[in-house]
């Protein structure tokens, strides 16, 4: 059984919150129209929603602050924010870019689906927060996967370090490690090393393979 059927409220809560946020930010025209990146690859049906306006997103299209990016079934997108940060979005994923400043960080929100955050090693650390209905993920410059995997919400770190918080508990997850959150608001479980098969499975779901 997938996460969407097990936790139907998560999607509705996210969409309601996202709609309210976009409505509020719609009056801040100058900031909302700030181009922060590009869709470097789009496969299938991908849309962006800004201040209530929905339009198709194609390869080479602009990505703006406070865009809600939506991928359809069997559809994938790779976004480049600034010159060195990439987001890979899996099928049926919804991601709100609440605020992003190249080289500094910001806040993004994963409503449904899977994503990979990719920032090369050796670059200055950024301060980025990823909100989900399952908890918060604090990023300090890394490459990691987040999203449903094997019936739970999971986070896997390829390199770097993230902090996964939920249910009043925070876990540090480092290179080669993963952590699971069983349900929205629950505490993350124990941090464990992931095997190659599970890593490939997670990355494939986000369109990386």
Fold and architecture overview:
This protein has 209 residues and is an alpha+beta fold. 17% of the residues lie in helices and 47% in strands. It contains four helices and 18 strands. The strands form two sheets. The chain has a nine-stranded antiparallel sheet, covered by helices on one side. A nine-stranded mixed sheet has the order 3-2-5-8-9-11-12-15-16, covered by helices on one side. A hairpin with a 2-residue loop joins strand 2 and strand 3. It is globular and about 40 Å long.
State the main characteristics.
209 residues, alpha+beta, nine-stranded antiparallel beta sheet, nine-stranded mixed beta sheet
Write a compact overview of the structure shown:
The protein is of the alpha+beta class and 209 residues long.
> How much strand?
over 45%
Strand order of the largest sheet: 4-1-6-7-10-13-14-17-18
| Topology order in helix (H) and strand (E) letters | HHHEEEEEEEEEEEEEEEEEEH
Quote the distance from N terminus to C terminus.
23 Å
Main sheet?
Answer: 9 strands, antiparallel
What class do helices, strands and sheet pairing give? alpha+beta
Tally of separate helices = 4
Share in helix: 10-25%
What is the overall pLDDT average? 85
Number of strands: 18
From the alpha-carbon coordinates, what is the Rg to the nearest angstrom?
16 Å
Which of globular, elongated, flat, extended, rod-shaped describes the shape? globular
Poorly predicted residue ranges: 4-31
Oligomer: single chain
């Amino acid at each position: 059984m997938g996460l969407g059927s097990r936790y139907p409220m998560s999607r509705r809560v996210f969409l309601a919150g996202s709609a309210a946020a976009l409505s509020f930010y719609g009056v801040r025209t100058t900031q909302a129209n700030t181009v922060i990146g590009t869709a470097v690859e789009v496969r299938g049906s991908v849309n962006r929603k800004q201040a209530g306006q929905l339009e198709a997103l194609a390869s080479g299209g602009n990505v703006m602050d406070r865009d809600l990016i939506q991928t359809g079934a069997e559809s994938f997108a790779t976004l480049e924010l600034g010159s060195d940060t990439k987001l890979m979005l899996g099928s049926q994923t919804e991601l709100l870019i609440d605020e992003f400043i190249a080289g500094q960080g910001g806040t993004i929100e994963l409503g449904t689906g899977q994503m990979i955050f990719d920032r090369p090693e050796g670059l200055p650390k950024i301060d980025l927060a990823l909100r989900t209905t399952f908890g918060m993920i604090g990023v300090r410059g890394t490459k990691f996967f987040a999203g449903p995997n094997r019936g739970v919400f999971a986070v896997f770190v390829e390199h770097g370090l993230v902090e996964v918080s939920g249910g009043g508990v925070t876990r540090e997850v480092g290179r080669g490690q993963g952590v699971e959150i069983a349900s929205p608001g629950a505490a993350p479980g124990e941090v464990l090393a992931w095997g190659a098969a599970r890593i490939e499975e997670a990355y494939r779901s986000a369109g990386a393979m």
